[in-house]
Amino acid sequence: MIVETIPDIAGDEKPILAIETSGEQCGVCVFWNNEKYVETTPRIKFSHSKKIFTIVENTLSTAEISLNDISAIAVSIGPGSFTGLRIGLAAAKGMALGASLPIVPVPTFEAIAMEALSYTKKGEKFFIANKVNKEEIYFAGFINMGNIYKFVQQLGIVSRIELENNYSSVIMFGNAGNKRLIFPPARAIASWSWLYGKKFELTNYDLLEPLYVKDFLVKGSKIK
Amino acid sequence: MQFPFVYHIFSEEETIALAKSFAAILQKGDCVALTGNLGTGKTFFVKALCKKFLIDDAKSPTFALLNVYSGKEKFFHFDFYRVRTERELLDIGFHDYLNDEEAISLIEWADLFPALLPKKRYEIVIMLNEDFSRTFNIKKL
Questions:
Q1: Mutation site for B-interface testing, chosen from A24, A209, A222, A224 by largest number of B Cβ within 10 Å
Q2: Inter-chain touch A224–B112, beta carbons under 8 Å
């Protein structure tokens, strides 16, 4: 288990509780600002459903606060793992409802892009590619503008073949890419929410769903 | 083993031998779609295949929908027989399992939901013949 902690827990501003479950690992972060946060990400694949509340409890405990001391719950909204996103959002909704907190849905690719700023140079273009299934890829392009990113290609779905043919020599993050940054750390989810999330806070989140981009609808019928 | 591969089998021992040969070419991330009527031996073939990977507890996932095995390799063993809609498979995170490049996926009754299958896969069709022999038709797509 990796725990990054800067436990100088004073200050007036309430922290954000961030949940990241869009990838293989489940991460939680209690975040005051970029200089002060507690992050827990067990290196255990697909442990989301078993561990998420234990991780939340441990992280809150390390930060020496309770849910009542939180300002909002930031949750990675996708795109990403179908099941992972649903677990993260269900957990966030449950906790938000119980503690009367707003939810900030954080676009997962933008949190990755924000994190990728420290892996790229100013003016450099970079892409993020994460698998939808064996044939399709969630894909978006960005440019590093210094301490902010800008879209150069809107989030969408491309085929693996198109990716291999047209983007083989670009800087590409994600699990279909060529760099080590694959999914955002929970800290990046919190940090995005801290910077941009205030106007996206939702108090009525009953109908909030993961952002899958792809429409997972029934196409065929079963024939026996 | 070269594909397409067609083989007539007259005994369980021959099925086990075929499963062993097929197991030798399987790699992490592969998907195997099995098709064949009730009683043709899909699960028997899977059990024999898994044995080669030191997995002794492989059993039909007809009611569980999915069994997970760990041996020399990790396996996801699906059975579409009781699945009513694609949505049910999506709801259990079907693509998340297939995206796991560390595991091998085996799917019985795969022909019931062809739209969900990856284009790159092994396809095994088992036919029961009148003399109770089986014909295995294995393709690499």
A1: A222
A2: yes
Q: What angle do CA B121, B100, B108 make, to 5 degrees?
A: 45
pTM, two decimal places:
0.83
- On whether any CB of chain B is under 8 Å from the CB of A22, the answer is no
* CA-based max dimension of chain B: 41
Interval A189-207: pLDDT, tens = 999 999 999 999 999 999 9
Length of chain A: 224
CA B119 to chain centre: 15
Predicted complex ipTM = 0.73
Nearest CA distance, B32 vs chain A (angstrom): 13
**How many residues make up chain B in this entry?**
141
What is the tens place of the pLDDT at every residue in B14-65? 999 999 999 999 999 999 999 999 999 999 999 999 999 999 999 999 888 9
Q: Determine how β-strand A103-107 pairs with β-strand A72-78.
A: parallel
Identify which of A206, A213, A214 has the alpha carbon closest to the alpha carbon of residue A89: A206
Contact status of A134 with chain B (Cβ, < 8 Å): yes
Contact B95 A135 (CB under 8 A): no
Residue scoring higher pLDDT (A122 or A12): A122
Chain B hits for A219, Cβ within 8 Å: 86, 115
Q: Is the pLDDT of residue A4 over 80?
A: no
The whole-angstrom separation of Cα A101 and Cα A106 is 15
**Continuous segment of H or E residues that includes residue B105:** strand B103-108
Task: Check CB contact of A215 with chain B, cutoff 8 Å.
Answer: no
Per residue, the 3-state secondary structure of B31-91, as one string, reads EEEEECCCCCCHHHHHHHHHHCCCCCCCCCCCCCCEEEEECCCEEEEEECCCCCCHHHHHH
B99: which residues sit within 8 A by CB, 6+ positions away?
A131, A133, A134, A175
